[in-house]
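I'll show a record.
***
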Amino acid sequence: MREVVVVTGTCTGIGKTVTTAALAAAAQEKGRSVAVLKPAQTGVTKDEPGDVDRVRHLAGEAVTGVELARYPEPLAPETAARRAGLPCVRPEEVAETAQKLAAAHELVLIEGAGGLLVRFDEYGSTLADVARLLAAPVLVVAAAGLGTLNATALTTEALRARGLRTAGVVVGSLPADPDLAARCNLEDLPRAAGTRLLGALPEGAGGMHPADFRAAAGSWLAAELGGSRRERAPAHP
């Protein structure tokens, strides 16, 4: 089955790239061919490794990686493109590239920059427009701690308002010894977001040895995402 999944976050720096790598690793473990598409990489110079490189490092060189645009300043893609005097990325370009990748791969993962409604261009186009063009489900990567319920609810509400399908929520970085808020959020996130919690990556997963990362990735993700994680019975401390 060929599938395109859009991966977004409730904000930046919450484990979206490592989650994308885990999805890719779990899919490859099941024998599926995988491509990762990064429409706009910001905050990285032309000679530095970007998010696609990090995904391939963790999930394996067999992953096909494509980056459409790169801007040196760590800003929203539209702002970064304008300041650099470079062309913006258009949703149509992203969708066309994803469709070409889907013709040769069983799973295509499109990793956004920052959150769902970060602007790609001067017209206000966003990752949501890419999902609409492809009729693709959107996986939301959320933080674990205090404040995540509101941010995640706002993201999934924006998806529903646009008639887009939410694939579920994954916690991008769960501490080994989570505090009270993080423990409660594992139970409360599905209610706040109106969708299932489909995984939780351990804090520091991105620093694991690649072989260990690939071996463990499936255990962090639910079956819907190609993993083996089982939902735990909710229990507030």
User: Anything to note?
Assistant: Residues 12 and 114 are 4 Å apart (CA to CA). Confidence is low (pLDDT under 50) at residues 233-237. Residues 16-29 form the longest helix (14 residues). Helices lie at 16-29, 51-59, 77-84, 91-102, 127-134, 148-161, 180-193, 210-220.
